[in-house]
Design a protein that fits this description.
Order of helices and strands: HEEEEEEEEEEEEEEEEE
Shape: rod-shaped
Largest sheet: 5 strands, antiparallel
Structural class: mainly beta
Distance between the termini: 150 Å
Number of helices: 1
Strand content: over 45%
Helix content: 10-25%
Radius of gyration: 40 Å
Length: 285
């Protein structure tokens, strides 16, 4: 009898130990499941958004600053490394700048703006005027696309950009000094020398260019009426890159005597700012 009771007691102890072990396993499993849900519900610290894409111009230092911010799911500003793909075009759709520019966390800092309530932690990328091709308009479009080092990609966004550097129209000038004849009068002929020739260009709002020429004409000699002052005249022609005459005319000086000089000017309008022109002078007859 005693031996029977001992066997029953041992069996009871084994069953009790097994039941306790199963309860312990379920509790561990529940704990793991709850921890996993909690971690998934925590705010993510990874970058989710790009914001504050803007461009401003620093007239003092002659460069544009391209801004953008990176934010997580809680709108907290963060920094990162990556590449900013920037393209700038003018209003004639001419490409002035296209470059993939690397950036790091060192390019992020706090920026302020009179329109913001507080400072913002943004990346600033600088583009100097000297890096841009000349523009046929003062304003245009800047496209900003950002790819982070971890592969996160933000599609391009078009921004308005102003204060683009104006293109300078190229003109092939004749060698100066140069001498020509004014043969308009039957009674005498004047010998005229161009001693100085300068020009500047200006691109208009419609994308067409104007050339402004300044010349100094000197009356070297006359075949008759030497003691009289009279105006002198020279002809000019402007050719485009295909050799076509796009403008012609005459330059008239103020009345001058032999040995005297006169400063004169003439303008040529409605030109293609990206073409190359050639200026030639000719005798007046």
């Amino acid at each position: 009898m005693k031996r029977f009771l001992v066997v029953i007691l041992i069996l009871a102890l084994i069953c009790c130990f097994t039941g306790c072990r199963e309860d312990s396993n379920n509790s561990y499993g529940d704990t793991n499941y709850n921890d996993k849900d909690y971690e998934e519900e925590l705010p993510s610290t990874s970058i989710q958004y790009i914001s504050d894409r803007e461009v401003e111009y620093d007239d003092t230092n002659k460069y544009h600053i391209v801004f953008f911010g990176l934010q997580d799911a809680t709108d907290t500003y963060l920094s990162a490394s990556g590449t900013a793909s920037i393209t700038i075009t003018d209003e004639t759709d001419t490409n002035l700048f296209k470059k993939d520019i690397p950036f790091t966390s060192n390019d992020f800092t706090d920026w302020t703006n009179q329109h913001w309530d507080s400072s913002r932690y943004l990346c600033g990328i600088y583009i100097k005027d000297s890096e841009l091709q000349g523009s046929a308009s003062s304003s245009g479009t800047l496209s900003l696309e950002v790819t982070l080092a971890d592969g996160t990609h933000f599609e391009a966004k078009a921004l308005n950009i102003s204060d683009l550097p104006s293109i300078s129209v190229k003109v092939n000038l004749p060698t100066i000094p140069a001498t020509f004849k004014d043969m308009r009068y039957s009674s005498y002929t004047s010998t005229v020398q161009i001693t100085k020739l300068e020009y500047k260009s200006e691109v208009n709002y419609d994308g067409e260019a104007t050339l402004y020429f300044d010349v100094i004409l000197k009356l070297v000699s006359k075949t008759d009426k030497i003691n009289e002052s009279s105006n002198v005249n020279l002809g000019y022609k402007l050719y485009d890159s295909e050799g076509i005459v796009v403008d012609s005319g005459h330059i008239y000086s103020d009345p001058i005597a032999v040995g005297e000089s006169s400063k004169d000017s003439f303008n040529i309008y409605d030109l293609d700012p990206r073409d190359t022109y050639t200026l030639k002078f000719e005798n007046a007859s």
